[in-house]
Write a structure and sequence with these properties.
By secondary structure, the chain is an all-alpha fold. It is built from 13 helices and no strands.
């Protein structure tokens, strides 16, 4: 394994070039910074930057281990007891999301996802911009809201990998405290990542070389995450909420871009 870890960077550099690998590594570092600051967006940033210089499936494969490890770190930062309490509180949301996510992956070959990207982009952009201008959604009734968010998160996660967006919209509507928000994001994102990892193993995208590079990517992501957590610790709940909404507006714009480009 150590030999593979030592050989993997050289093989990847030989295959893709020094500059592309450096850019991808910088993207993973930046993704770690943002995730550490607001609790999410590691895949959005790391894969978006990595896929500009590497094959998209390779950028996704490199994310596998950092995604799992950073969510475990973030979810357990306040202790395992707090993480378990959060899992228990949102178990309906998580269960519905995982079942729907698996079902949606089976539908993917039969769907044209452009319309769904457009819907996701419009809904997310309007939701986030409205809150930036002062609108606050009323706390939705639970567990009905958990079921709806789980179904939407699982469906969009299965067809696009973006299972976190409806979850984030629910958590913002619940207006929960900062640390609980970050912890809930980490736990739901962690559990949602396993079906995708299994799928990439089956397709061969995750192979010994990409797994070895993914393990090495833990270093820039971990450094970025720690720096981001220092920023997070200095943010009060309102400033954190504003920063989250800005990132969600950008994510919504990216969904719209994907839909228009694909069309």
């Amino acid at each position: 394994m150590i030999d593979l870890l030592m050989a993997a960077p050289g093989a990847s550099i030989a295959q893709y070039g020094v500059v592309p690998m450096a850019i991808a590594t910088a993207g993973f570092f930046l993704g770690g910074c943002v995730k550490g600051s607001i609790g999410f967006a590691l895949p959005t940033i790391a894969v978006a930057i990595g896929a500009t210089v590497l094959p998209p499936e390779v950028a996704v494969a490199y994310l596998a281990l950092p995604s799992v490890v950073m969510n475990i770190w973030q979810g357990a930062r306040e202790g395992l007891a707090a993480a378990w309490h959060t899992f228990q509180e949102f178990r309906i949301l998580i269960g519905v999301m995982l079942v729907t996510l698996f079902a949606a992956t089976q539908l993917l070959p039969h769907l044209d996802t452009r319309e769904f990207s457009m819907i996701m982009g419009l809904g997310l952009s309007v939701f986030s911009i409205a809150q930036l201008f002062g609108w606050r959604p009323t706390s939705p009734p639970r567990p009905a809201a958990d079921i709806v968010a789980g179904v939407l998160g699982g469906f969009f996660g299965g067809i696009s990998g973006a299972w976190g967006v409806p979850i984030l919209m629910l958590l913002l509507s619940l207006d929960i405290p900062k640390k609980r928000f970050i912890r809930t994001c980490a736990i739901t994102f962690l559990l949602g990542s396993f079906p995708f990892i299994a799928g990439h193993v089956m397709t061969g995208v995750l192979n010994p070389q990409t797994v070895a590079v993914s393990a090495l990517m833990l270093v820039p992501v971990g450094i970025g995450m720690r720096l981001g957590q220092k920023v997070q610790d200095r943010l009060d709940s309102e400033r954190l909420r504003t920063l989250i909404l800005v990132v969600l507006v950008l994510a919504g714009a990216n969904f719209l871009r994907q839909a228009l480009v694909a069309g």
